[in-house]
Amino acid sequence: MMTIFFIRHAESEGNVNHHIIGGRSSHLPLTDRGQVQAHALGKRLTEENHRFDLIYSSDAERAHHTALIASTHLGYPVEKIRVTPQL
């Protein structure tokens, strides 16, 4: 059986600065709180014994950074994260 997880990026600058066009700008970084959220995600997935054969990320900085942080907790090699603009 295949299980697919869809995970939204952690908090980004676009989420807290509403004058920035959120969702339409792929260069916005995670906030400090977003980085904490991404670490918490990785820890939770590890504690729940999830293992991933593949991790995909959009090419948006906020999504890729979330994937990088979370995957380090999972022991998933960050160089194997598949980044695609199609997400």
Characteristic terms for this protein:
single chain, 87 residues, mainly alpha, two-stranded parallel sheet, 3 helices, 7% strand
**β-sheet strand percentage:** 5-15%
The total count of strands amounts to 2
Multimeric organization: single chain
Mean pLDDT: 92
SSE order, one letter for each helix or strand: HHEHE
Radius of gyration: 13 Å
Strand line-up of the largest beta sheet: 1-2
What structural class do you assign from the helix and strand content?
mainly alpha
Rough outline: globular
- Helix share bin: 25-40%
Q: How many H/I helical runs?
A: 3
Give a quick account of the main beta sheet: strands, pairing sense, barrel closure. Answer: 2 strands, parallel
Are there runs of 5+ residues with pLDDT below 50, and where? none
Taking the alpha carbons of the first and last residues, their distance comes to: 23 Å
In short:
The chain is built from 3 helices and 2 strands, in the order ααβαβ. With 87 residues, it is mainly alpha-helical.
What does this protein structure show overall?
There is one protein chain. It contains three helices and two strands. Helix 2 runs parallel beside helix 3. By secondary structure, the protein is mainly alpha-helical. The chain has a two-stranded parallel ribbon with strand order 1-2. It is 39% helix and 7% strand.
How do the helices and strands line up, and which of them pair or pack?
Elements lengths: L12 H4 L15 H16 L8 E3 L2 H14 L7 E3 L3
Parallel strand pairs: 1-2
Helix pairs in contact: 2-3
